[in-house]
Amino acid sequence: MKIATYNVNGISARLTVLLRWLQETQPDVVCLQELKAPQEKFPAEALLEAGYEAIWQGQKSWNGVAILSKVGKPEEIRRGLPGNHDDDQSRYLEAKVNGLTIGCLYLPNGNPAPGPKFEYKLRWMEHFAQHAASLLASKEPIILTGDYNVIPTELDAYKPERWVEDALFRPETRAAFEQLLAQGWTDAIRYLHPKETIYTYFDYFRNAFGRNAGLRIDHFLLSPNLKDKLKAAGVDREARSWEKSSDHAPVWIELEDA
pLDDT tens digit string along 236-247? Predict the structure, then answer.
């Protein structure tokens, strides 16, 4: 079973790219972030024609998450994090798909830091960690994936010294991510590729993609009962080179069928 995550950076502007990537790679399940589209503007019909049923949480101009599946329609569990009811930003969607619980997230960027946006990021991460712990307690097979906006280590950034004061790389952000992993989650990419330089995001400026000057900020976290089922994980770098592509590349994992 192949599962992917892709920050599309505006689904209306990137629909052609998204459909091409789906056609060429045929993932079974896809989590999308940064839809930048209200609920009624989500291209459900075009995706259905491509073979994917979907649930989504839109938001005008910003944010937005979706879960696509060609192995049965996702059964929605929740939208938004429990205990975070005052948050009106569309950043978390959770569903059952083919026996898996899948959480699709778009974690806040947090810049400029320090400041209110960074404080919001850390509060969101705290709510997320609480929910992640409750999910683990269920003993279900669980995947939490999406754009985390976290650079976990120096290996995950081109010239990490340039990111020291950025919200994605500040000590508080990395510590919160480490605490999340300490609950028992497996970072799929790093589990299979512990020392490789792997990036998932490349800025549009300064020929970042051409220079391989990227960041690894899109992650798959797997519950312990999925760790041994992980067969492969990677990044579809080529899609980042396509015309009108997102500044993120799709990330994917393959699991042994249960």
Answer: 999 999 999 999
